[in-house]
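Researcher: Batch entry, complex prediction.
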Amino acid sequence: MRKNVIFRGKLLPLLLLSPQLAITIVFFFWPAGQAIWSSLLREDAFGLSRQFVGLENFAEVLADPTWRGAAGNTAIFAFSVAILAISAALLLAVQADKSIRGSGAYKTLLIWPYAVAPAIAAVLWLFLFHPQIGLIGRALNAAQIAWDYRLNGGQAMLLVIIASAWKQVSYNFIFFLAGLQSIPRSVLEAAAIDGARPMRRFWTVVFPLLSPTTFFLLTVNLVYAFFDTFGVIHALTQGGPAKATETLIYKVYVDGVENLNLGASAAQSVILMAIVIAMTAVQFRFIERKVHY
Amino acid sequence: MNRVLAERPLEGAASENDPALRASRARQRRGRWLAHGILLLGVLIFALPIWITLVGSSHDVNTIGRGEVPLWFGSHAIDNYIAAWERGGSAVRNTRAVPAGTMLWNSAVMATLIAAGKIAISILSAYAVVFFSFPGRMAFFWMIFITLMLPVEVRIIPTFQVVVDLNLTDSMAGLVIPVIASATATLLFRQFFLTIPDEYVEAAKIDGAGPLRFFWDVVLPLSRTNIAALFVILFIYGWNQYLWPLLIITDTSLETVVVGLSKMIGRGDAQNEWNAIMATAILALLPPVAVVILMQRWFVKGLTETEK
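Model: Structure tokens for the complex:
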């Protein structure tokens, strides 16, 4: 944690720290404090006076059926994205780890979607699934399957899940590949000599050794699905149709920015903060095991 | 030569006479074919939306609007890209169009400033935390660390309020400064600095070099690969910003391309200028994708080392 040989001086280090600290205080701690404070207040209809209401905003948010709906959407959305992106990445990483010709080219061709912004990923999939101009959307309608993600909530959810997972596979792929490459060859050879077939070798030897990576990726993917996919939903469905794809983060935005219901929005923000803190804590509890890889 | 000749019959004997070995070889071959098949499928699924967009951006607006989804390039590519670059595409209900050239420039400036700013302030604070001992050192370190838990999405309204109070809305400073604090980069630099041998510092002290000189002449050159790896990751992070620009930019001359693209689409009407929109989509994803492909080694290093 600390070096034995250090420089003396008290002013210089503070000076070096000051830009980071200034930004952290002004744009992180002050607003976070404001969010917590205003989650305890209520403004009257004209914005003239504010009243301390304690935890009333929280009680109201938690009892609100639209918030509960958004929480349910978020759970379905986040777990679907995480499971889809992790399993696809694991399958691809195991194949790319085999000694086959062109594995370098495959790797390059599988990591680039990481660079695509979530909102742009959404737009790309819109081009495919648009009921009138999209290749797949039109094909589905031609096959007598009524497809319009702008009218059907389930279809809208499916589309935002696909677009969000598509972008995240690359990230998981890179980490699985790193995990696979750090498994000692001797372990695999020992299993092979014992006569274990590839499938059995994977489930009894490789997969357990990858479990710290998998767990780490699960939390990262859930955080991604919670927060970074705002762009996907905003670009693709705006939370619709009929709030079918409204996630918690999207609802904070709608209530705070569009409906200007500051107390409720602040209370929702504080709930989300608690969720992030819990997830980050879980992630750091297991990071020790992960870095040994 | 002799050795090869001597070994060959042995090898041949083993592979022809041992059915177990033969079965295992056949299995390996099947495994390789399966691997190629799965990887190719993955590559195709990844590339499919890009292919459709790339092809779509080379056709005229009516072909796409009628729903005749083309699978091969048309003849309007140059017109479409020039139109998108100079004039911009637009949704029907949204008549104002912003040229893609302007938006790409804004995104490039924003991404570069965010990446450079995050690296600059993080390397300085990590240096202070590792190479100095001063009251409150750990408290400051934890203050920076805790910001990991406060993504902009959970403090939207109050952060927006701060930016309004500071008069930073509709400005490049407002786009960049609020997001350049970086716990991730500080942690990475700190970890790296801890591996610099104490002897280096001792030697510098004996030579009479002060902390700033040591930073400039020793630490900064040693950090080059870390800086490059971080820059790749942070440039992509900056380029892909969405919620923050959406909130604080209303002046179209400062529109960034990711937000601008989603505004062009509006509610996704079939009558949109899809050809120009598709051209803009390609232009918007090209710079970060090129960075990942061209700097793949640094990108992978940056990603696996900076993960929070």
